[in-house]
Amino acid sequence: MTTSTVVKAESEQAPPRPARRRARDRLGPPWFFVVPALLVYAAIVLYPSVSGIVYAFTDWSGLGDWSFVGLKNFDTLFHDEQALGALKNTLLLTVAIVVVQNAIGLALALGVHTRIKSRILLRAVFFAPVVVSPVMVAFLWKYVYNPAPDAGLNGLLGAIGLDSLRQDWLGNPSLALWSVAFMVIWQHAGYSMVIFLAGLEGVPADLHEAATIDGAGRFSRFRYITWPLLAPATTINLMLSTIGGLKLFDQIFAATNGGPGYATETLSTVLYKQAFVFGRFGYSTAVALVLALFVAAVSLVQIRYLRAREDQT
Amino acid sequence: MTAISNGLSRAQFLRMVGGLAAGAGAAGVLAACGDGGSSGDGSATLTVVGVADEKAPLDLLTKAYTDSGAKVTFKTSYAPTDQVQTSVRTQLNGGNAPDIHVLYPGSGSAMSTGEIGKTPGLLADLSGQSWTSLIPANLKSSYSYDGKVHLFSSGLTVIGVIYNKSVFAGANVQIPKTYDEFLTACDTLKKAGKVPLALGAQTPWVTQLITYAFVASNVYRDTPDFDDQMLAGKATFLDSGWKQSMTEYMDLRDRGYFNDNPNGTTLEQSTAMVANGQAAMAVQVAPLLPAFRDAAKNKDDISMFPFPSADTADKVYTWGGANVGIGVHEKSKNKEAALKFIEFLGQQENINKWCEAVAGIPIKRDASSKVDPALESFLPLLDGGRVAPVGQRWPNAEVQPTHFSVIQELLGKKTTVDDALKKMDEVYKKDA
């Protein structure tokens, strides 16, 4: 196909990477410029984080003395029904958020990457929820999800004759997790949109022109030009939304506090409650450590796969 | 950089930034030195951190204390319970806790007397203060850890039924004295188009109130030492009156006496329902009476009666426990000044003022005590010992949140009463 030939030809013309690296070395600032920032980062982030790991092997309550308990906290964690339920919820939420948020983000980016007059306004409108505090978003959506038949979303459904779709959005244990997922997607779809938009800006217009001359339709141009060249933006979006989904806390804490029952409990809410509500800092640190390792592992696998995809294009 | 190219040299710029940073740092250090310190004239600045419920009485009584000539300046701050639990526990561990801080009665929550008292050197001993002799015998354990009084709490609070008098009058319903009468009243109100019982179970702590209201009669009337039996491993939730209590709770759900979707309804929404007459009653704690009154068009419409969870009126017990209070940090540099303030709060006149501000019932009443008229029907039960402080002696801080969660699951029909109680028994046996 012509389009793929064009893409390949351009990549062949790219300068070899070592030369690029050498040029960067000559022009870049000296390496020791990073030392002050690194020291601050080490003191504020690395040292507390690494020293905190020790507590994962203790019975510390958050107050007073503690003693080592070996791997007991990890043994408890892998037999803890509540934590395993929270892990399942976390994974379901993450998959829903990664897939739907990025699909909507891409659709919005394609929509506002046109010549329509209101595109600047629309970009601002779609991005606006991103700048609102997650806790504020949760409180706002608690109003939207009011279970009263004449309030919020239920009121809207009633007004357009869809009374049968009225729900107890946050109170129904079977529905609450998806209501939370929708709330998070609503807030962050604009963020994905901006990253995809940046990717779209980098797609050369002449490729589209050439493909159009060759008779490629709109879908073919997206499939063979836009989508492959959006690979870096896709990598970033998938990485960020996966990490965000796995760490999700604020919106859940403010909207449902993990309830009803344990229906929206995630690993982050479990570790918060274990530490600050139940006074089990040792166990909570073990949960945090497992979560951090899990996020790191998922991110590494994801980035290797997506980078490989980028190299193929 | 524009600023540099316009006549400001790199060295000048760095000196300026450094100077600003040093200035900011020095200001911070000076401000920190000013916190909670003592001045040369013998006066002290006492830092006080409380929960929002304590703002009204503490604002009133700290002012009264300074007006009385005490050489003390107060630096008070208030926050929701979650935030206080996080910040004050961290400060206690870090050695920079406020001189006086919120403390919950009994054990079983992260900021409770029993939980903080377990770690030596955090809570000052108040046992020698004269007001401690006023603490009712059945509440001593709520104020103490290991035999020492650590909690100052001015009085008791109760769980009962907050109701709208106009709705009752409109449906021609009288205050029920027995459980049968209560069910009849709910039925009549439902037929009159009113929600008999507003329940805002999305607010987790609200979920426990109906269980506690039942348990006071179903468990503690015949087994007053139930907590001791549980702690000794001789009793379980599943094989006790808790089962009957939760079954009756869910029976109210099945009869349709709650508002639709209680799990999706917040405390504020349920309060509004009673206040505006959409609902007739809500099982609630007495300190929320002012909130219901504030939400009602006519404050006099709102009143309260004991939850009638027995076949005959004379068998009704009420949940009654010490109200949230304060403790003194043992390592405070201003410990003596803080203890003097607690002694001041313990004077009968000030106990009365605190209770009036929170619709509480003083630990000891005198002629000048003004109990909220809505709570007068509780006084015979309290004076007659028909009171149970359910939930103030849990062995760890997970039992109570587990209770919240299983009630939400029961309301959502995701579990059974037996499974819910088994889960609570499992959590009860966990290490503290």
Automatic annotation (TrEMBL), chain A:
Q: Which Pfam families match?
A: BPD_transp_1
Residue stretches spanning the membrane: 31-57, 91-112, 124-144, 175-200, 221-240, 281-301
| Alphabetical keyword list | Cell membrane, Membrane, Transmembrane, Transmembrane helix, Transport
Q: How does it sit in the membrane?
A: Multi-pass membrane protein
* Annotated InterPro entries: ABC_transporter_permease (IPR051393), MetI-like (IPR000515), MetI-like_sf (IPR035906)
Q: Where is this region: Disordered?
A: 1-22
Location(s) in or outside the cell = Cell membrane
Instruction: Please indicate which superkingdom the organism of origin belongs to.
Output: Bacteria
User: Where does the UniProt annotation place the signal sequence?
Assistant: none
Q: Which residues form the ABC transmembrane type-1 domain?
A: 87-302
Question: Keyword Transmembrane helix on this protein?
Answer: yes
| Family of this protein | Belongs to the binding-protein-dependent transport system permease family.
Instruction: Please report the name of this protein according to its UniProt entry.
Output: Carbohydrate ABC transporter permease
Question: Per the UniProt entry, what species is this protein from, by scientific name?
Answer: Paractinoplanes globisporus
Q: What is the lineage of its organism?
A: Bacteria, Bacillati, Actinomycetota, Actinomycetes, Micromonosporales
UniProtKB/TrEMBL annotation, chain B:
Which residues, if any, are the signal sequence? 1-31
Reply yes or no: does the keyword Endoplasmic reticulum apply.
Answer: no
Which Pfam families would you find in this protein's record? SBP_bac_1
Organism encoding this protein: Paractinoplanes globisporus
State the PANTHER family in the record.
ARABINOSE-BINDING PROTEIN-RELATED, DIACETYLCHITOBIOSE BINDING PROTEIN DASA
Write the record's keywords in alphabetical order, separated by commas: Signal
Name of this chain's protein: Extracellular solute-binding protein
SUPFAM superfamilies per UniProt? Periplasmic binding protein-like II (SSF53850)
